[in-house]
Design brief:
Elements (H helix, E strand, L loop, with lengths): L1 H10 L2 H4 L3 H11 L2 H26 L3 H18 L8 H18 L3 H7 L5 H6 L12 H5 L6 H11 L4 H8 L3 H14 L6
Helix pairs in contact: 1-4, 3-4, 3-5, 4-5, 4-6, 5-6
């Protein structure tokens, strides 16, 4: 993330630094000059870090993933922002990147999340042959054996490894999403050091 910021900071011009997001969007739509994308990224840097914090700490995204997704969606937002009569640009951008982070983390199975602790990015995992349907071949009881999980925690893990969303899991288990948060908190402690 810092490398991307430092690279983009070098591309900024004095003129682009003075522009607000709306002006950067209009200029970027005209000629897709990377200076405007770089400037918008540097201006949004702290906002991106704040938005990505939980996804990095709790859901396995890396800073490299966040930088990649943030630039991808910033390009999209600069090209598709309609102007000040709608939501502010920052509101639009935060909504778009949150959706991207959520989409990526929901697609992660528990094994992938644990594997991320030992890899630098999602792209590295994909290069190693992981795909989003990899969990179908695992025997869940064997994987979870020896971690002293409750039946509900085991059920949660099994459903998570089958790529169910938290909303779907809460409906299947008949618990609230707050209860799922407690399960996740306990699982982070119990599965600390989990390896494949």
């Amino acid at each position: 993330m810092n490398n991307t910021y430092n690279l983009f900071r070098k591309l900024m011009t004095e003129q682009s630094k003075e522009m607000n997001y709306e002006q950067l969007s209009e200029a970027y739509k005209k000629d897709k000059n990377p200076i405007y994308l770089a400037t918008a990224f540097c201006k949004a840097y702290k906002l991106i870090l704040a938005t990505a914090g939980d996804y990095i700490r709790n859901y396995g995204l890396t800073y490299e993933d966040v930088a990649s997704y943030s630039v991808e969606k910033l390009d999209y937002c600069l090209l598709n922002y309609k102007g000040t009569h709608e939501a502010k640009f920052t509101t639009f951008y935060v909504t778009v990147i949150k959706n991207k982070f959520r989409e990526e983390t929901q697609a992660l199975s528990m094994q992938k999340r644990c594997s991320l602790l030992y890899s630098s990015s999602l792209e590295e995992l994909n290069e190693q042959g992981w795909d989003k349907s990899v969990t179908d071949d695992y025997k869940y009881d064997d994987i979870l054996e020896g971690y002293e999980l409750t039946d509900k925690e085991k059920q949660y893990c099994k459903l998570l490894m089958q790529s169910y969303t938290n909303t779907e899991i809460s409906n299947i288990l008949g618990v609230t999403t707050m209860t799922l948060c407690n399960y996740r908190k306990n699982l982070r402690l119990k599965l600390n050091g989990f390896t494949l």
